[in-house]
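In this section we walk through a basic example: taking a raw amino acid sequence and producing a predicted 3D structure, encoded as discrete structure tokens. The instruction is simple. Fold the sequence below.
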Amino acid sequence: MLMDTAQNPLFPAKLLLFGEYSIVIGGQGLTVPYTAYGGSLQFARTNVLNRSGEIRQSNDTLRRFAQYLVSVQQSGKLPAVMDIEQMQTDVQQGLYFDSNIPHGYGLGSSGALCAAVYYRYALHGVDTVTGSASADTIIRLRSIFAQMEAFFHGASSGIDPLVCYLQQPLHILGENSLHVVNMPETPLQILHLFLYETGKPRPANSGLVPLFLKKMENPEFADICRLYLNKYNNNCIQAFLHSDATTLWENFRRLSQFQLVHFEPMIPGFMLQQWRRGLNRRQFYLKLCGAGGGGYMLGLCKNLPETIERLGENGVHELAL
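The resulting token sequence is shown next.
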């Protein structure tokens, strides 16, 4: 059972609703906290630590993470002062990250961990868990989290841990422009957003983002993405934020069709038939949710029971944002 306390609050997972690959080429993005999953720092007794492989692995990850933070803090690369000595002491006492966020699903498991570590160990840290953040604060936090999460991915934009920490939706307008937004108060009327669980985690080091960047070296592909991918993606974001169901339905369809044609390597092979069927029958539309390759897909439909019957009730999870 996940614990949520004042000293060790529960940090949620995140969902990138729109913006996969578009963000990389100057398009917009919309990322939201996803409270169905989360994690918090906890302590395990020695006998539990020795008996549980999962807890022991988490404890070891935190040990190596602390060593990394020491090195980047000493080199001046970390724009925050953190009590790493206390973190290392806590790791020796059985500290681990108690989380139900699945790995390989694009839900920000490492982002939630970074948020939890910053909250507990940052000296003079920015407390936005109980308040709001200014634009300058958001920029500063993103810089801190980018350096922290680089331990897990080699490089990071800092956005995943930022949305986990703020626990508020973020509208990404460009590389150095993002702000907190409110979810639309008016429901999408006849439309239903849902997650489709492929049942297949994205493989570690899948190479999908490098593959996209390689394809972007082709001027024709790059022009198509900047013209159409960004257009459909940005239209979806604006339509969603303004509860414009008609525009969202049409642009989600176009985005789904674009990804089917140009991003097929990012779509699990066993999903292609259902993806096409939804488009052809205009029954439901699917798109990538993150880098692709597995994990969750994001879907949009008008008739949810009919879509569940087609895709299977175990795979469809309606989103209430």
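Looking at the output, two observations stand out. The first strand starts at residue 11 and ends at 18. The mean pLDDT is 90. In the next section we compare this with other chains.
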